[in-house]
Design brief:
Layout lengths: L12 H31 L2 H5 L9 H37 L14 H6 L7 H12 L1
Helix pairs in contact: 1-3
Protein name: RNA polymerase-binding transcription factor DksA
Pfam families: zf-dskA_traR (PF01258)
GO molecular function, one term: zinc ion binding
């Protein structure tokens, strides 16, 4: 995300402190989740992932299920990495004194929105407008 057009709507560092704590906690939890997903999707063998310790021949349906689970985990991992990048961006905005200002219009993002999505870049009006544009 880009920098804010205006930091007039930004919260002071003391006002942003509760969000800083929330973002750090969320980031820590998501790092654990992404590490687990990466381990389960990339480092395990088929038999380890399935808990299969036998030496019996592998059925084609089992291989299909394993591939589906791996692809699902990788897609989930990619989505969580995007969220982690947004959290890091929010932490950087707190550090630079721009947190809480909408990157689109520069207006202050309401606390109720930041309580729900502390890493958001947009106020509800700009987020709604962007959503409408993306839907065409």
């Amino acid at each position: 995300m880009g920098s804010t057009r205006s930091s007039q709507g930004a919260y002071s560092k003391s006002e942003a402190q509760p969000y800083l704590e929330k973002l750090k906690l969320l980031r820590s939890r998501m790092l654990g989740d992404t590490n687990y997903l990466a381990d389960s999707a990339l480092k395990r063998t088929r038999s380890e992932a399935a808990g299969d310790l036998s030496k019996m021949p592998i059925h084609m349906a089992d291989i299909g299920s394993d591939n589906y689970e791996q692809e699902f985990s990788l897609n989930l991992l990619a989505a969580e990495q995007v969220t982690l990048a947004e959290i890091d961006s929010a932490l950087a905005r707190i550090e630079s004194g721009e947190y809480g200002a909408c990157v689109e219009c520069g207006q202050r993002i309401k606390k109720s929105r930041l309580n729900a999505i502390p890493f958001t870049h947009y106020c509800i009006d700009c987020a709604s407008e962007r959503d409408q544009e993306s839907r065409g």
